Amino acid sequence: RHHVWSRTDTARSGTPEGCLDPATALQGYVDFAKRATVLFADRDGGVVESEHLPLEQLVAKGAVTGSDLELHLTSLVPHVRPRNFLEVRCFDALPWPDSRSVVAFISGLVYCPHAFAAAFELSEPFAIHDRAALAALHENAARHGLDATGPDGRTLREIARQLVAISGSTLGGPNCDWSKPEDL
């Protein structure tokens, strides 16, 4: 699936330009959304085909409503999509037991400052700012799954095991009391 998405519509998927650096990530995503072609418009409660112009051109023409913008943003499929939360696209459409595990996993890494720092340090070699190198890493992961190697030679399986251990150590604690280690 990851491999297919990387070749389906590169203007709407992947990692948007500018989103690799925290200092420019928000503006990078805004620019990505503005440059993307609007596929559909919301007219009288129904979805119709749009003029197939970039959002910024349709806005300049005064042809975009708030509903159109919301619809357009749902048609963008980067690896992580900001909504009123961060949607991690590779985890969508999982069966409930697996979804619960993903929520526990991410919560354990994000909501505990110690775990967040440890995960950040562990993943530092993956902070790739070169788009070609990042595309090669994603291709490697799509083809080889957890047996793919990262920039530092470790397999994704090794990294995943360490991240699960870091996350699991925080679950049920004061920063993440809504999930338990067994949720992983």
Annotation keywords:
two-stranded parallel ribbon, 8 helices, 184 residues, mainly alpha
Short description:
The chain is mainly α and 184 residues long. It contains 8 helices and 6 strands. It has helices at residues 2-8, 25-35, 55-60, 66-74, 96-110, 113-123, 131-144, 156-170, and strands spanning 13-14, 40-43, 46-49, 77-78, 80-82, 86-88.
Give structural notes.
With 184 residues, this protein is mainly alpha-helical. 48% of the residues lie in helices and 10% in strands. It has 8 helices and 6 strands; from the N terminus they run H-E-H-E-E-H-H-E-E-E-H-H-H-H. The strands form 3 sheets. The chain has a two-stranded parallel ribbon. A hairpin with a 2-residue loop joins strand 2 and strand 3 (46-49). Helix 5 crosses helix 8 and helix 6 packs antiparallel against helix 8 (156-170). The longest helix has 15 residues, at 96-110. It is globular, with a radius of gyration of 19 Å. The mean pLDDT is 89.
Secondary structure layout:
Layout: H1 2-8, E1 13-14, H2 25-35, E2 40-43, E3 46-49, H3 55-60, H4 66-74, E4 77-78, E5 80-82, E6 86-88, H5 96-110, H6 113-123, H7 131-144, H8 156-170
Number of strands: 6
Question: What is the strand content?
Answer: 5-15%
Element pattern in H and E:
HEHEEHHEEEHHHH
| Gyration radius, in Å | 19 Å
Mean pLDDT: 89
The low-pLDDT segments are none
Contiguous helical run count: 8
**What structural category characterises the helix and strand content?**
mainly alpha
**Major beta sheet, strand line-up:** 1-4
Separation of termini? 23 Å
Helical content class:
40-55%
Envelope shape: globular
Could you describe the largest sheet, including whether it forms a barrel? 2 strands, parallel
